[in-house]
Structures are given as structure tokens and as C-alpha cells.
Write a structure and sequence with these properties.
This is WGS project CABT00000000 data, contig 2.68. One of its GO terms (cellular component) is CTDK-1 complex. InterPro entries: CID_dom (IPR006569), Ctk3 (IPR042326), Ctk3_C (IPR024637), Ctk3_N (IPR024638), ENTH_VHS (IPR008942). The structure is a single chain. The chain folds into two domains: 215 residues, Serine Threonine Protein Phosphatase 5, Tetratricopeptide repeat (Alpha Horseshoe); 63 residues. By secondary structure, it is mostly helical. The chain has a two-stranded antiparallel sheet. Helices cover 64% and strands 2% of the residues.
Length: 342
């Protein structure tokens, strides 16, 4: 049995080296699956790295979770799936916290959670509750597809530096920080008061169902206080853009990939039926196309027509050979006569 401390250190290093490539995710996932006897410790490593890493690393780990649970399900190791279902609120709170520092990761959270729900790893009720809490933190759906981005409150109309169409990798950089208590105007103060009232009402709600329990856990983590989001340096911005480009390229490759069986069935459906223009004079010759198609999926009349054409062609070839043989015999007789005369 391997040393638990060494296993934790190696797995932690692999999590820190995660990138947009599939290879890095597969390597870390396979390592965790090999050491399934330390599943609880390795799961805690994932949570620790989510809470300690920077913005880009949180996104990489979030994508890794989807890949990891998929491999664990195929390998029959349901313990990792159950632990992730248990701590999914903590994961979301770490990747997209309430202080606005994870605004660029909100779209990542939504995409991964929807993928986990499509694979039956998450319940639809939990997914709805998480999205509702994210909207309460300031994110809103701005398109028909429901993409989540950082959006200013309706009362904070003075925040004019925000662009709703901004890419997710640049939202946390260009979005202006929320006004503080010393600089806020009357309208901002009213918005903060309304936010505090809403948070107070949420905290006073009785937790009688699983939905209210999820709300309570998420709200306690953030505390309902929005602080200025930290700015990313140029290197982190370039790294995030490059990783997003790599993921989008791989997504396009997956979209164009078609299984061979489906491609064959589509070709059969799109191919037109055999017409008169497809039947040519030389079809059905010896070793020709007609001989190959005779055993295909054709009707009796079509097969009979191709057989008739083949027989006719064979007769023509036989007659041509007989004429050539007669001509050769005649030429030979003429030569014999000439030699006799000489």
C-alpha cells in the first residue's frame, strides 16, 4: 500500500498542473482511480485546491471534475460520485464565490453542472437551486441559451463600464468593482439596502426541504457581502484566453465527429433510388458493376433487367469472337491456296 501522504502530494501536484488538454485530466483521474482506497483523502485534495487556487486553476479543476466522474462511473467507482454529489455546493461556492472574484467562472460552472446533470450525476432540483442562488449573487441569463455573466443590478445603473457581451475570460477584469460605503450614491445605497434585506429574508427562511438547505449553505459561505473583485495580471488573462481557445477547438472537433454506424445510415437515407440514367450499356459485363450489384438490395425486375443485359452482352461478345475466328480461318485457307499455286 502506498504512503497516504505521498499519494496526496502527487495528486495535488497533478491538480496544479491541470490545463485545457485532455491528457492532463486523464492522468490525474487515472491516478485517483488507482488509489481508490484513499478516495476520501483525494476528494479532499480537490476541494482544497478549489479553495486555494487562482481563477484559471479553479476553472481547470471544474472541467476536470466532469471528466473524472465520467471515468469513475465507467470504472464502477461510485464513491467518488457520491462524495462529489455531497459537496457540490462547496465546489460551486469555491469556483464562483459570492465576492465577485469568480464572475468569469460562472459560465464554466453552469456548463459543467449541466453536463453532470445530462449524465445523471446531479439531480434536476439541485441544479435549479444552484442556478437560482447564482442569480441572487448578481448573475443573470442574458441570452436564449441561458449564458450566465456578471450583470449589474437594475438599481445600479451608474455602473456604465460593463459590457454584457464581454467574453467570460475578461469579465472579471473589465467589470467595474461595486461601490463602497464611502463612495456609493443614493441609488447605490438603496440597492445595497435591498440586497441586505433580501439576504436577511433568505437567512430567516425555514429549511424544510432540500432546496432551502442548498440555499442556506451557499448563502452562509458568501455572507451576502460583495467586495471588489481582484484584478488578474496579463499572464493569467492570456493563459485563460489560450485555454478557452483550446477547449472550443476540441468542442468543434467533437461536434464534427460522427460515428461510423450513423454515417452509414445517413448515406443510405440520402442516396437516391436507382434510375434509368444509372443503367448504362456496359453495366453487367463480365466482372463489371452489374455482377456486383446483382446480390444487392434491388427488386426482381431490376435484377432481371441487369441479367438480360448481361446475357445480351455475352452473346454479342461470342458472336464477335465467332466472326473473328471465321475471318482467321478464311485468311488461312487463302494463304494455303496461294502456296499451292506457287
Amino acid at each position: 500500500m502506498a504512503d497516504p501522504f505521498e499519494v496526496r502530494m502527487r495528486f495535488t501536484n497533478q491538480l496544479r498542473q491541470l490545463s485545457a488538454s485532455v491528457t492532463s485530466s486523464q492522468k490525474a483521474a487515472q491516478y485517483a482511480l488507482r488509489h481508490k482506497d484513499l478516495a476520501e483523502d483525494l476528494h479532499s485534495c480537490i476541494l482544497e485546491q478549489l479553495e486555494r487556487s487562482n481563477l484559471n486553476m479553479r476553472a481547470n479543476i471544474m472541467y476536470f471534475i466532469e471528466h473524472f466522474l465520467d471515468m469513475a462511473h465507467k470504472d464502477g467507482q461510485e464513491d467518488y460520485i457520491r462524495m462529489m454529489q455531497r459537496d457540490i455546493i462547496r465546489v460551486v461556492d469555491a469556483v464562483a464565490p459570492d465576492d465577485g472574484s469568480g464572475a468569469a467562472n460562472v459560465k464554466v460552472v453552469r456548463k459543467v453542472l449541466q453536463a453532470l446533470h445530462a449524465k445523471s450525476f446531479l439531480d434536476a432540483t439541485i441544479l435549479t437551486d444552484i442556478f437560482e442562488v447564482l442569480r441572487e449573487r448578481g448573475e443573470s441569463y442574458v441570452s436564449s441559451q441561458g449564458d450566465l455573466v456578471l450583470s449589474p443590478s437594475a438599481n445600479n445603473s451608474s455602473l456604465s463600464g460593463y459590457d454584457a457581451n464581454m467574453p467570460p475570460s475578461q469579465t472579471a477584469i473589465h467589470a467595474p468593482p461595486p461601490p463602497t460605503a464611502t463612495t456609493a450614491g443614493p441609488s447605490t445605497h438603496g440597492s445595497a439596502k435591498a440586497t441586505a434585506t433580501a439576504n436577511n429574508n433568505n437567512n430567516n427562511t425555514t429549511a424544510g426541504t432540500s432546496s432551502s438547505s442548498h440555499h442556506s449553505n451557499l448563502n452562509k459561505r458568501g455572507g451576502g457581502i460583495n467586495t471588489a473583485a481582484p484584478r488578474l495580471d496579463k499572464k493569467q488573462v492570456e493563459q485563460r484566453i489560450e485555454e478557452d481557445r483550446e477547449r472550443h477547438k476540441r468542442l468543434r472537433e467533437n461536434i464534427w465527429a460522427v460515428p461510423s454506424r450513423e454515417e452509414m445510415e445517413r448515406l443510405l437515407d440520402e442516396t437516391s433510388e436507382l434510375g434509368e440514367d444509372d443503367m448504362r450499356g456496359d453495366v453487367g459485363g463480365a466482372g463489371g458493376v452489374g455482377e456486383e450489384l446483382a446480390g444487392g438490395d434491388y427488386g426482381g425486375a431490376e435484377i432481371a433487367e441487369m441479367t438480360r443485359r448481361k446475357e445480351l452482352l455475352l452473346q454479342q461478345q461470342q458472336q464477335q469472337q465467332e466472326r473473328e475466328q471465321q475471318d482467321n480461318d478464311k485468311d488461312k485457307e487463302d494463304q494455303d491456296v496461294d502456296m499451292t499455286s506457287a
